């Protein structure tokens, strides 16, 4: 007897998906400061139906500000529509002209060079950067922490580069070159990645921190105080 097929509510955009996703990420139109912390909201809601979730969202969703001085605002359906309109303008006025120019200039040599560079050169550069960020920066700043490379067999290995062990608890470190922030408009973790981070936290007890590096140094220096607070919490055995 065939299993009941789970109903899907999300719309398929076909070939348009790539350009919609790229532009949305680049211009930060789906960040928590625009649409709220949606995964946290839906877990809090625990909806029994799509209608439950939709109603809960518009009753409880507020923009999440990264600045304490900035006021959180309630999210409405009209504001989501306005974000969609901004997405359309970005695609039509910026993304399409930029891509058309890139398409005209693209050569076979660009493609072969890119694959080789991505596979060999960037991998090696990234490996050296990771080592330097940990050994020359974090390990010296936090000598009581035992930093270990993520086990390739770890469920979260794709999202966690290093684990910082405090006794039997650990926090995670993801290292991104500063170009990631530039390429994706102040890099925002995807919803899948956020869910992976939450699963890591449940398993190892500590949060995951995204460290941006430039010239083998930590570029987002504010993250260091956040890591320091997390180390103190783990040492004290306090819950989040």
Q: What's the helix and strand layout?
A:
Blueprint: H1 16-26, H2 32-35, H3 38-45, H4 50-60, H5 77-105, H6 108-141, E1 146-149, E2 162-166, E3 169-177, H7 178-183, H8 191-204, E4 205-214, E5 217-218, H9 222-236
Parallel strand pairs: 3-4
Antiparallel strand pairs: 1-2, 2-3, 4-5
Helix pairs in contact: 1-5, 3-4
From the structure above, extract its key features.
240 residues; alpha+beta; Trna Endonuclease, Chain: A, domain 1; 2 domains; 5-stranded mixed sheet; 5 strands; 55% helix; 12% strand; globular; DNA binding; nuclease; endonuclease; hydrolase; Restrct_endonuc_II_MjaI
Descriptive overview:
Keywords: Endonuclease, Hydrolase, Nuclease. GO terms for molecular function: DNA binding; type II site-specific deoxyribonuclease activity. It comes from Candidatus Acididesulfobacter diazotrophicus. The structure is a single chain. By secondary structure, the chain is of the alpha+beta class. It has 2 domains: 16-105, no CATH class; 124-236, Trna Endonuclease, Chain: A, domain 1, CATH 3.40.1350. It has helices at residues 16-26, 32-35, 38-45, 50-60, 77-105, 108-141, 178-183, 191-204, 222-236, and strands spanning 146-149, 162-166, 169-177, 205-214, 217-218. It has a 5-stranded mixed β-sheet. A hairpin with a 2-residue loop joins strand 4 (205-214) and strand 5. Helix 1 (16-26) packs across helix 5 (77-105). Mean pLDDT is 87; it is low at 181-186.
